[in-house]
């Protein structure tokens, strides 16, 4: 049997064409793949490539569903996969690692929402919730592998205020829905309903390779914002006293007796010179 003629191309060109075909199977191709690659034993080159294309998109969907398990549950598998396919088409993988695959998912949902140009009070609640939920899940995923304090000493409970700073693997965030609660309900194997709109503040951190979320009050959130921005604890306490119209003595007493030790144990702080 005569061997089919194949167009000769450079390896570099062939690799780029193969990559582009994987990332965008619908893109027009000026040269047929069958004129460039040899066929398989029972199928032609185009059919062989299609196997890679289908496997690739299935792998990317799986990665996204593992990174956003609560969003996957909330939307359902079919709808989540539709969103994933559209996202991957608009924001194809641009990193050597699939770890970065979902880092634009939340922004993409916000940018492509059909009610984006409407006033806030006319927007769909479920879209707001999905955007918040993906933001939360993306931050959990980021902190899982972010630079942390593992392997170093943690401060003692008796450490003076001036010796404490927020640890590096910590973030504070505000959400319009109780997304942390919803996420942990899913991870616990329960089936929560769509939660009502409710402003929630949270601290997300990793200590000893364990990621955790802590709800905080609006006053605590403001206090942590000031620490994050580089203010000393003494200055933040003074600002909180002014903001709440309470005496500095009362605010400082609450900090020392109700908050400080619990936050040190949880891993909010490291030593200033660590």
From TrEMBL:
Pfam families: DUF2063 (PF09836). It comes from the Bacteria. InterPro entries: DUF2063 (IPR018640), DUF2063_N_sf (IPR044922). Residues 14-109 form the Putative DNA-binding domain. This is Putative DNA-binding domain-containing protein. It comes from Cellvibrio mixtus.
């Amino acid at each position: 049997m005569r061997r089919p003629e194949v167009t000769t191309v450079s390896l570099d060109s062939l690799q780029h064409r193969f990559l582009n075909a994987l990332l965008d199977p619908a893109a027009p191709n000026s040269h047929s793949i069958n004129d460039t690659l040899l066929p398989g034993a029972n199928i032609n080159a185009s059919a062989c490539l299609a196997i890679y294309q289908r496997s690739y998109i299935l792998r990317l969907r799986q990665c996204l569903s593992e990174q956003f398990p609560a969003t996957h549950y909330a939307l359902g598998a079919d709808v989540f996969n539709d969103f994933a396919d559209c996202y991957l088409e608009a924001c194809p993988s641009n990193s050597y690692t699939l770890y970065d695959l979902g880092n634009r998912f939340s922004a993409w949902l916000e940018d492509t929402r059909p009610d984006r140009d409407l006033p806030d009070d006319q927007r769909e609640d479920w879209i707001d919730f999905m955007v918040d939920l993906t933001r939360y899940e993306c931050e959990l995923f980021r902190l899982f592998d972010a630079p942390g304090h593992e392997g170093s000493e943690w401060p003692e409970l008796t450490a003076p205020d001036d010796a404490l700073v927020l640890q590096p693997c910590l973030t504070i965030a505000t959400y319009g829905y109780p997304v942390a609660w919803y996420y942990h309900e899913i991870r616990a194997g329960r089936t929560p309903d769509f939660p009502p709109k409710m402003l929630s503040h949270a601290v997300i951190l990793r200590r000893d390779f364990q990621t955790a979320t802590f709800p905080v009050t609006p006053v605590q959130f403001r206090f942590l914002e000031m620490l994050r921005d580089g203010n000393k604890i003494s200055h933040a306490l003074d600002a909180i006293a002014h903001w709440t119209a309470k005496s500095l003595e009362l605010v400082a007493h609450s900090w020392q007796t109700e908050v400080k030790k619990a936050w040190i144990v949880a891993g909010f702080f490291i030593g200033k010179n660590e």
